[in-house]
Write a structure and sequence with these properties.
The protein has 11 helices and 8 strands. By secondary structure, the chain is α/β, with parallel strands linked by helices. It has one domain. The chain is globular, with a radius of gyration of 18 Å.
Length: 296
């Protein structure tokens, strides 16, 4: 995956609070998708909610001005995105939102931007306070994606993904898929508390995978706002394989087999490796979000 060297990056889409501090609080499980993610990690990684640092409060992150300016100072162009992980994520956020910003009007709808927050260790959100152990997540309460860049190392070492730049991009595009669902009113269907292979929680996650595939299909043809040319200039078959490998690595069956030695479909919340790959592939093959109806 390569970006246009001369394209300007919109760093306003990313808030960088790496190195910031979040006030402490009593650890309890947050609601909605955050609670689902915590439950997933609790089941598969052997930790409980009290160890993940979620609190019911909405404390705001605190960071110095130098922390806030880090991305703005270093991530200026596509050339930076081709050499730095954090700048790559800024570019992916730009590309994903450029696509959805143009796609929604075609369906007589309006897309509202969502900011991505880079953090380390702990962060406060409208869904509660969370630690890095939660992994990347979307909070519908404040319409933000939260990401500790250290997760991408975990994706390789803990979850067994082959890694690669597009594996990282897949993760970000999946979280923005949840933002799309939130805008469309489908995200709330995952909040009925049910788990299992046929649950709405799984269907919501698979749809977000499909939406990530739809963006990937259109990424090299979506014009960037700064140049009018596509921000992503190259997406190879090898890149797509990295994305599919990442999707499989975080399948419920793969995680259960790796961490508890057995597969229990009744506790699934995200779908199997095969399902996740299949729905990403459906989105990538068709480039049509209408084909992402996992609720049928």
């Amino acid at each position: 995956m390569r970006f246009d060297d001369d394209a300007g990056l919109d760093t306003s889409a990313v808030k960088d609070v790496r190195g910031g501090r979040v006030p402490g609080g009593r650890a309890t499980v947050g609601g909605g998708l955050v609670g689902v993610i915590v439950l997933l990690l609790g089941l598969f990684l052997g930790v409980g909610p009290e160890n993940l640092g979620l609190s019911s409060g909405g404390d705001e992150s605190m960071a110095s001005s130098s922390d806030q300016a880090q991305v703005a100072e270093t991530c200026r162009t596509g050339r930076d995105a081709n050499t730095r992980d954090d700048c790559r994520m800024v570019a992916v956020v730009n590309s994903v939102q450029d696509f959805w910003r143009q796609e929604f009007p075609r369906r007589s709808a309006r897309y509202s931007d969502a900011q991505t927050v880079f953090f380390t260790q702990r962060v406060g959100t409208a869904c509660g306070s969370a630690t890095s152990a939660v992994g990347p997540f979307y909070c519908p309460g404040d319409h933000k994606v939260y990401l500790d860049l250290g997760f991408f190392q975990e994706l390789r070492t803990t979850f067994g993904s082959s890694g690669g730049p597009f594996a990282q991009a897949y993760v970000v595009a999946h979280e923005y898929g949840h933002h799309v669902q939130n805008l469309m009113g489908t995200l709330k269907r995952s909040q009925d508390g049910r788990m299992g292979a046929d649950s709405n929680a799984v269907k919501v996650e698979l749809q977000a995978d499909c939406y990530a595939g739809v963006w990937a299909r259109q990424a090299t043809s979506t014009p960037d706002r700064s140049t009018g040319r596509p921000l992503i200039t190259e997406l190879t078959d090898a890149d797509v394989r990295d994305g599919l490998d990442a999707a499989a690595a975080v399948g419920d069956d793969r995680i259960q087999e790796r961490f508890q030695g057995r597969v229990t479909p009744e506790s699934w919340t995200h779908g199997s490796a095969r399902q996740r790959q299949g729905w990403f592939s459906e989105g990538f093959r068709t480039g049509d979000m209408a084909r992402c109806n996992t609720f049928r």
